[in-house]
Amino acid sequence: MYHVMFSVMLATGCRIGEICALTWENIDFENNRIHICKHFIVDKTGSHIRDGCKTNAGDSRLTMDKGVMDMLREYRAFYDETAEKYGSKWNYEDNAVFFSHK
Asked: Would the pTM of this model clear 0.70, i.e. be above it?
């Protein structure tokens, strides 16, 4: 998971908070694009995801090369297997691409 996460981070140039906020709806496998449109923050009330990026220029649809998209496809299979293993304990609500076992 971390290999994919950091590869996407390097390929997109996104901040860690933007990568952590990615959901599967933001990954467009058909057009090889990733939509960056929100960010993850930790504040006094706890961690949560906010719509919108840290800067106005941050909201973008980035075209990815075949290697990154293939990596994400393979990772999606791992994600689905992990979700199935956890069953009802899995957080399907967030639909976050990168997840924690906690």
From this structure: yes
